[in-house]
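Annotated sample (chain length 364).
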Amino acid sequence: MKKESLDIKMTAGGSFEGYEITEYLDFVSGQIALASGFLANIAEMTTQESNTFTSKLQSASDTALEILMKNALALKADGIIGVALTYSDFSGSSIGAVASGTAVKLKKIQKKEAITNELFVSNYYTRLLPRPVRIRLLAIDGKVKIAGDFYNYNLEEIKAIRADVELENFYGEKMLLSGIDFTFEKNNISMLESFYVECDLDEKYVGMTCDAKVYLQKYVTSKDVFACTDNPINVSMSLQSLKALKKNRGIDAFERYHSDGSTWTCNCGHINGAGAEECAICQRKESDLASNRSFNYDEMLEKMKTMINVTGMKDVLMQYIKQIDPGIRMELLEIMESGLQYERTRGDMTSSVYDKVLRVFETN
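Output written by the structure step:
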């Protein structure tokens, strides 16, 4: 039974959802008696008389509850728990309604917003192993949970994966979570998304974490338990570039395509012989990848980051301009000229220009 009136909460139970009881004040009650003689000849009542009697009982009940609430409010209560409504035989033919409960002080529970963070894994394995590609962090109700996404090239029935996860925050501080066991609801699919599992990470670091590396220990298939002794390779590009690469080349991409004539490196990071038409790991075709730029723009972008104005950024661009694909040179120069124009009227435009230059490279 619940009733809200006169700015006070009531419940027949012992608590209110979303509130905590901070103080138990006192037992309170409210009562009212119906006119004497009301119960006389009740067995001989007509339907109309019975309806009238029921209406009067309801009115008495409402009045008893209102008195109960007023008595609780007099104690400066916010709510009443354990509310009970009974009818009592006051005297020979008189009946009354009695409402009772315990007056309490309440405090609304402030629910914390969940903090989430998704990080692309910045190291990779070159063999046909379950490939860690993304780490998901969730902080809620004071607890931190972690989940992992793994690319399953072989479409195996992977039941569990044990791995160490190294996280790095904006300060360059590293935190190692050892022996995390990832399990999955669905198997035999290319993208394995694990359940969340609690981990030993301070809640404050969830939103501050910017990088994740995963080191496989062992994994379980329907056939056996396999240990992993391989050493993973760290990506050779910035995290921002890695994010853009994945957006354009797939979540399992970790390296830019390049070839030295005798071998070619696939987006998945596997090094293939020159005669291989497609990657032995991910089946990407070299002919589809060969149209990519061979120019490594990370070095140029890192220099641009140190510039205090667009003029300096343009000077850096000009140092590399001959190495850049002629098809995008004009676009880059136009970005610089536009940035110079806006900088004269709007102030610092280095961040905006940097983002535009990066997008040009990552989308071509």
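Annotation: The CA atoms of residues 117 and 187 lie 24 Å apart.
Annotation: The chain has three domains: 2-108, 115-235, 297-364.
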